[in-house]
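Fig. S4 source data, part A: sequence.
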Amino acid sequence: MKTCALLLVLASSAAAQTVEQRVAKAPDGSVRFSFAARPGVYGNGGNMISWDGHNRQIDGNWEDRADWNAPCDSGPVRVALTKSGGRITDLRVYVGGEWRTSTSATDLGTVSAKDAASYLLAFAMRDESRAAEKAIFPAVLADSVTTWPDLLKIAKSDQVSRKVRRSAVFWLGQAVGDAATKGLTDLVDDGNADRDVRESAVFALSQRPHEEGVPALIRIVRENKDPELRRKAIFWLGQSDDPRALSLFEELLTRP
């Protein structure tokens, strides 16, 4: 009975700790955890993940095949961190499959999607490594988590590396809802933001559904004072095959 009680106390203590605290306490090497994927996310357990009709091939995952078995599934999201000298130096993400038994990896088990997303986005905000850039993707796959406010915060932060900000802008563009589009247009209009980040926001708007993205791009062409951003918006409107874009081009070309 005492042994069972001790195990329950230890389990309760581990559950009370955040993912960040548990990762910090883990020894160097591989640290992995899993969490629920949002609806519409599927994976082959390896280098292919799809969501809402989009497919993404994850570079470098094939070389780590020893980590996983590969049935195609709708989840969970699996994150494998590489920790060296107390720092996270690499990150891999999978959907589906299952971890193979490892005597060296620290497996945190299944954690809440909210806690996982909070950890990953906080890591992206404070770190400038390649791992930080890669941390944003699994965060947006988390079930029942609204990530766009944090993505916008990362995209607008001067304390975050340009690559991480551009990654945040890209995934902000994939977020669902009018609020994400508004965040992107605000970012384009922000004259204090980095030029590359603002151009990434224009591209992200081009990836939104036409009813959201096309009007936003047209407004940039009509109102933004930066000629390079206007050219970018015109280019992506040209790829949209939308009659509103054609009307705009006719208006610009026939303007006296």
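Fig. S4 source data, part B ends here. The two ends are 89 Å apart (CA to CA).
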